[in-house]
Amino acid sequence: MTFSGFLSETAHRTFLPQQFFSDVLPLVNDVAELKVILFTAWAMQQRSNRPYLTWEEYRAHELLEQALLPLVGERSLEVVLQHALDSALTHNILLGVRSPFQPQSILYLINSARGQAVTRDILSGTFNPFTDLAVELLPPRPNIFRLYEQEIGLLTPMVGEALQDLEDHYPLRWIESAIRIASEQQARSMNYIRAILERWRTQGRNDETTGRGTEQHHEQRYIHGEDASFIQH
């Protein structure tokens, strides 16, 4: 079996930071570990509101199972998966944390600023990750990387890093709304998106229940109002 080619240059991308190629790839010698890391990066970007996976979620996902089966040999799929996860933890590429609410289960996170922050919240007991485990693994909503490409333009590595930073600081629904507003107002720039989010953060977003028309009216100030000189279109 061979690969027939990507269907599109821009559709359905998964963002990987530059450090993946400069720092992570040289560490990883095991193909199963590499596949698990890539799967984790993909899965996290599908459901950024819950940036962790359980062992059961790894084991139950058909795509990962298909990826690991050629590597099983005389071992079981479970052994291959566990070894790959353990290696990723040893290399500090993934983080493993046990919640005080359910200490028998390990949660796996990407070792990023956001993953580290969520880990601290879980360990301190300020965040119970088991209150929403009924949520499906990969909800069929577009992630912000795909949405950015659809509404704004090319997803460069720099833009990808900027979007990931926004995810660390703002609710996902805010980012999605800000991207759509930027597109509709013909102000397709990251500065415009950040300005919208910062205004909502400092002044509140009181129009969340009033529909997108109100949002559009509310954000006209970014083009014609006090922020017009700041934003580079």
Summarize the structure.
It is built from 12 helices and 3 strands. The chain has helices spanning 18-24, 31-46, 55-60, 62-68, 77-90, 113-124, 144-151, 157-169, 172-184, 190-203, 212-218, 221-224; strands at 53-54, 94-98, 106-110.
What do you see in this structure?
By secondary structure, this protein is mainly alpha-helical. The protein folds into two domains: 18-131, Arc Repressor Mutant, subunit A (Orthogonal Bundle); 144-224, Arc Repressor Mutant, subunit A. Helix content is 52%, strand content 5%. A hairpin with a 7-residue loop joins strand 2 (94-98) and strand 3. The longest helix has 16 residues, at 31-46. Residues 133-141 and 208-233 have low confidence and may be disordered.
